DNA sequence: GTTAGCACTCATCTTAGTGGAGTGCTAATA
DNA sequence: TATTAGCACTCCACTAAGATGAGTGCTAAC
């Protein structure tokens, strides 16, 4: 059997209607509210076909139909085709005041959640191998040394290092210069034993301090915690089909913990093909707690090799059209914001 | 009528039982499971008295009794009396590596949530008027200046300031010295126009830069965002009495937003009498979304004038005894951790 | 190929009935 | 006088039995 044009129209009508109401949709509804001018009986025949083909199914005998995962998939795919062209032009080249990026991304998550009424997540763009821009060593007190690490992305991190022996001001200045000379522009993989040895040599009796500082730097650079901003998790409770209190609970927990979300995002990010907008329906999502949901993610590229993801989690009867459009226009907005700022 | 010893015992038995089961408790239950050896009829009479006095009530005619807010209040107060003495010795003097404090507090929130099965929150200790320990100005690139602000509490913040005119390395060093000389040890209220003027004078043509830097410093010092760490918010769904999906939703939202939590905590913190452990029952809580809950908070003092709060939110039938004990022992643990670290 | 019509299914809502836990009251007892 | 046993009563929670209605599948006619 083949999906002719009429079947496609009916399928789309069924899905759209279901997205609105959340109720199984019957043949009479479709026959009344479409421009097809077909009787309910005809629709019934077509629906029966669509069911055989696996696009829709009945939750119980003699109820209306709801879209299967395959049905959603078809809907999304046909929707996507129209959008893909635009999407390719979407790369936002964001390089902005990095100290505000946390606030911004949190804001984006919130905005998206408020606009869509779904749960959202935004991951912080992270370079695979961030390079060091410079270090700044300052004495906090007799025993403590403040190490400020500035990355190529203008991200600033700081660590406090214990000093076993008192270090004179001049020595500190010298250390500062030495370490910067050696480390500037390097990423973690490039800081090898040879480099370390040379630095230690120059530091003389303070070579242990150098080791401690390097540890702190490595720690700061590789820190990954809290890379994800979420919002609207409570929106999940608005959808009866997710609200069986077992599922909702698990889902909310996933959002609270965030750890699994990181996995979801990094998983989908490693795949080079997964740029642009991606839709996971039901079982397609990598996370167990989301098997009854749909997840839409979008990748954005801040600069060469630095990607972040924006994701939306909602019920399978998600308003895919709106979500995709919102994601897109959000990207454009982001683009503008970043351009203004930089 | 008076609360004689027997009434107290019966009231406590009722509350304990209700805490365990979550069901209204009847006279027969009490007569069987206490060492009072009274018949259910006697208990009934006493219960009737307790109801008249407002400590318990029937959710509907001829059902068992459940504690009223007043009943909980009595229970908690009599519980507290035993504990207050210990509590006064509890102040933990935490001064630790400030860069790890975020992680630590998040961990505390989680630990507490896992142990109690309630929702928890921990506020970051914040001095009313934090003093500046020192500043560190570094050049990021031609147009950007990195300002690192270190507070008395060893907290480190950074801001990026735009430079309109290029600044020479030497000038930057000088500015660094000048600003530190003037600002070290001051809090925001002490940086007055006189101080600002003197600094500007020394800075000569770079006086606008000084203004910008000061703005950044003020911004960094007064920043309050994300002062609260939460965990276990999803535990709320475990309690049927909160799970009417309207209430649960609001509660979870409160935890997601955190803004209101800040209010709850700062509200209770301003009151000088509210040190130590505090219990809000039902309507006593300042937040609307928690009118059906109980909230237990504990204040901890890091150093003179620097307080933080730990809070637990759960159903009114909270296991107050356990919560209070847990909060206490957690304090002790914290104490030890901080002592090791500092 | 399309449609009208009819018998059938099944979730949902309503209603009535039942059981049980619990109370209040009264009269008897220690 | 305080305590207790006993009984009538209340009301929630649960179940079973219709009633309703939306929706289907199938057949025969157009």
Question: Which CATH first-tier class of the largest domain in chain A would you pick?
Answer: Alpha Beta
Please provide the count of β strands of chain A.
11
Let me know the CATH homologous superfamily of the largest domain in chain A. GAF domain
- The CATH architecture classification of the largest domain in chain A is 2-Layer Sandwich
Would you identify the regions of chain A where 5 or more consecutive residues have pLDDT less than 50? 84-98
Structural class of chain A: alpha+beta
Shape of chain A: elongated
Oligomer: homodimer
Q: How are helices and strands ordered from N to C of chain A?
A: HHHEEHHEEEEEHHHEHHEEEH
Percent in strands of chain A: 15-25%
Q: For the record, give the distance between the C-alpha atoms at the N and C termini of chain A, rounded to a whole number.
A: 56 Å
Radius of gyration of chain A, in Å, reads 27 Å
């Amino acid at each position: 059997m083949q999906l002719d044009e009429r079947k496609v129209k009916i399928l789309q009508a069924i899905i759209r209607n279901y997205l609105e109401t959340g109720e199984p949709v019957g043949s009479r509804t479709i026959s009344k509210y479409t421009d097809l001018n077909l009787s309910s009986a005809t629709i019934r025949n077509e629906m029966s076909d669509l069911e055989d083909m696996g696009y829709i199914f009945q939750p119980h005998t003699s109820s209306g139909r709801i879209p299967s995962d395959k049905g959603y998939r078809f809907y999304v795919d046909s929707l996507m085709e129209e959008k893909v062209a635009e999407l390719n032009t979407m790369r936002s080249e964001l390089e902005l005041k990095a100290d505000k990026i946390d606030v911004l991304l949190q804001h984006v998550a919130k905005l998206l959640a408020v606009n869509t009424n779904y749960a959202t997540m935004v991951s912080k763009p992270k370079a695979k191998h961030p390079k060091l821009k410079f270090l700044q060593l300052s004495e906090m007190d007799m025993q403590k040394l403040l190490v400020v690490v500035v990355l190529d992305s203008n991200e600033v991190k700081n660590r406090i290092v214990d000093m076993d022996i008192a270090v004179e001001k001049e020595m500190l200045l010298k250390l500062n210069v030495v370490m910067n000379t050696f480390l500037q522009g390097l990423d973690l993989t490039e800081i090898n034993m040879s480099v370390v040895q040379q630095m230690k040599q120059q530091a003389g009796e303070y070579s242990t301090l150098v080791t401690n500082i390097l540890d702190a730097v490595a720690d700061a650079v590789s820190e990954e915690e809290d890379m994800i901003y979420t919002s609207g998790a409570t929106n999940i409770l608005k959808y009866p089909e997710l609200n069986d209190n077992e599922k909702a609970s698990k889902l909310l927990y996933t959002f609270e913990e965030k750890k699994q979300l990181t996995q979801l995002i990094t998983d989908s990010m490693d795949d080079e093909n997964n740029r642009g907008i991606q839709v996971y329906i039901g079982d397609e999502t990598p996370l167990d707690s989301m098997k009854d949901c749909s997840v839409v993610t979008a990748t954005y590229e801040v600069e060469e090799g630095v990607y972040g993801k924006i994701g939306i989690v909602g019920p399978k009867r998600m308003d895919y059209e709106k979500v995709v459009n919102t994601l897109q226009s959000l990207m454009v907005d982001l683009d503008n914001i970043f351009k203004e700022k930089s």
